[in-house]
Specification:
Elements: E1 2-7, H1 21-30, E2 33-38, H2 46-52, E3 58-62, H3 76-82, E4 88-97, H4 105-122, E5 126-131, H5 134-144, E6 151-153, H6 160-168, E7 172-175, H7 185-193, E8 199-201, H8 223-234, H9 238-252
Helix pairs in contact: 3-4, 4-5, 8-9
């Protein structure tokens, strides 16, 4: 069993599937992917995300990405109302990205805090995007995140020290296809150190296709390649990597329920 803990099904390149997202989902299921979390990046794409989550074993989040610009800021009340849907299992993705937007730190921090507070009120885990903002991310998580529901640092590319600090706050660490990239030895060393019971796997599709699919658009079925790479790195079977990260996923996102399996 494999769970793609972070994908954007509404943004997939569907040209290999004749434009049919259901065919892409079927290909993932045929590869052994039992479930997918389709992640929201703003209020405008939430209806599409939620529509896709009406299918069995696909779940949704609700949130506003830190790099989304020229969008109307959602109030905490608006976001909280959207979390009440039975297929919404998380808040996010949200967070801080100073790599691309150092000039918008204050706006990003305000948006992040709002969503952390929504997640705490809704008792849902939060999906955190963080890049070049290690200390501010950790400081805001310490101040505003729920220790009971916590969340995940997705598509992790930061330091081992940050990973340890996040785990101390109850967070999980998710690895994407980046860990397979030739220049990602530091990230591989972090993966080697990570306890299996705190790891998730993801594609972040359609972005960041893993080796051996570099140069192609990413899709959920490639999460199996991420699992195989991490299994080899940690000296366990791919079956153990898949099952353990799936168990971790359902522990972190208890509102997500498998059906028909």
């Amino acid at each position: 069993m494999f769970i793609d803990s972070h994908c954007h099904l509404d943004r997939l390149d569907l040209s290999p599937y004749g434009g049919d997202v259901h065919a892409a989902i079927a290909a993932a299921r045929a590869a052994g992917v039992s479930g997918m979390l389709c992640v929201c990046i703003d209020r405008e794409n939430f209806p599409a995300v939620l529509a896709l989550a009406q299918q069995p074993n696909i779940w949704a989040s609700v949130g506003i990405h830190p790099l989304e610009d020229n969008v109307r800021e959602a109030t905490a009340e608006e976001l909280l109302a959207l979390t009440q849907h039975e297929k919404v299992v998380a808040v996010g993705e949200t967070g801080l990205d100073y790599y691309y937007a150092k000039d918008r730190k204050e706006t990003m921090q305000e948006r992040f805090v709002t969503q952390l507070q929504v997640a705490k009120t809704a008792a849902l885990p939060v999906i955190v995007h963080t890049r070049d903002a290690r200390q501010d991310t950790l400081d805001l998580l310490k101040s505003h995140a729920s220790r009971e529901a916590a969340g995940v640092l997705h598509c992790f590319t930061e330091s081992w020290e940050m990973a340890k600090a996040a785990m101390d706050l109850g967070f999980y660490i998710s690895f994407s296809g980046i860990v397979t990239f030739r220049n990602a030895e530091e990230l591989r060393e972090i993966a080697r150190k990570m306890p299996l019971d705190r790891m998730l796997i993801e594609t972040d599709s359609p972005y960041l296709a893993p080796v051996p699919h570099r140069g192609h658009s990413n899709e959920p079925r490639f999460v199996v390649d991420v699992a195989q790479f991490l299994a080899d790195l940690k000296g366990v079977s791919v079956e153990e990597m898949g099952q353990t990260t799936a168990d971790n996923f359902f522990r972190l996102f208890p509102k997500a329920k498998l059906t028909g399996c």
